[in-house]
Amino acid sequence: MQVKLSLTKAVPAGLIEELTKKSVYCSPHLKALSITGDGSTAVLTVDREDQAAAVSDKVSRFIATMIKGYRKFDRKVVFENDIPVTYTENAWEEMLRRNWAYDSGFGQVALAGIGFDLFRYFEDVFVRIADESFRARHYRFPTLIPAEVLGRCNYFSSFPHAITFATHLHGDYDVLEQFSEANKQGPLNFPRLDALEQPQYCLTPVVCYHCYRTLEGHNLTADEMRVFSAVGSCFRYESYNTTTLERLWDFTLREIVFVGNREAVKDQRQVCIDVVAEWLKRIGLRVRFETASDPFFTSDFSERTYFQLIADLKYEMRVNVSPDRTIAAGSFNLHNDFFGKTFNIRSGDGSAFSSCIGFGVERFVYAFVCQKGFDPANWPEEVRRFVKDRA
Q1: Cα-based angle 146, 151, 156 (whole degrees, multiple of 5)
Q2: What would the pLDDT profile of 61-78 be if each residue is shown by its tens digit?
Q3: Cys-Cys with 351: which of 52, 340, 355, 361 at CB 3.0–4.6 Å?
């Protein structure tokens, strides 16, 4: 059923997209939300009539929180490769048809054949950038991360909607026996609600936290720079927003991380922006780098978003997947001294500053086929070299 909700304060046009995206976390009974053109009305699709009032109340409070403190801010574009592109329609369906990709479950995708060769191409590029431009040290970190670490990094308070917990059954004979008996046949069944331990670990949402942990308590000299190149499987729950290779629950993140003094870290981020921009021009992808913010889900969402935008702390790599739609395939981030203070990493006489550059490998694969199509003969030469044995 549909419910029209008159809003006491209109939703600003610049907030509608972000508000709609986050609305999936309001209630499991809310199946869709749209905002009218003037921002004065929210149209809700609710799956049960007896839940309409409760859902409306949650949505009203959610919208009021999102609007609170909102300030319009024009995003700054620091690089744009605005080239003509002939886009491929239904690229995801075509990847499935060609067996370049397999749907492995909610928010999970397997890549194979030429689809996996493209994945390897992008991974190779990111590793070469880390090697040739920054002489980075390479790491492969675990999938699990202690909940205590995410707590210190304010992840639980800032991104509660995205967390994936890892836990296990209690080490208790009766609990294990009951669980085993209840699961002799059929789907997963929990015979008792208290069978699971409180989670002490989570599935990693970002790679860079692991990097900072390796430096915890370290004292770097004033001109010392540590550079990491790391890759890992990362997990962010996206609810109904999960789709194709664009937005996965389980995805691959390659990061280049800098830790050192303020100016050196900032300078290295700019070098990385320039290097990545030159590569993207070389392979002919339509893309722009623009100011952005993290997907905070907090009562001070607007204030934190505005601070990130006005301070140029985050630039997203917005790659086109159609003439009028882009996806964030990566980002260039400055953290100031937050992680230096959090992990007690010193640089000279003060806390260390940090920056991370993140590349969502599966998103680059998807954006590439959307723009370049499925015939390797039409791809840039350096990409063709990775797929010539399978073309």
Answers
A1: 110
A2: 988 888 886 777 778 899
A3: 340
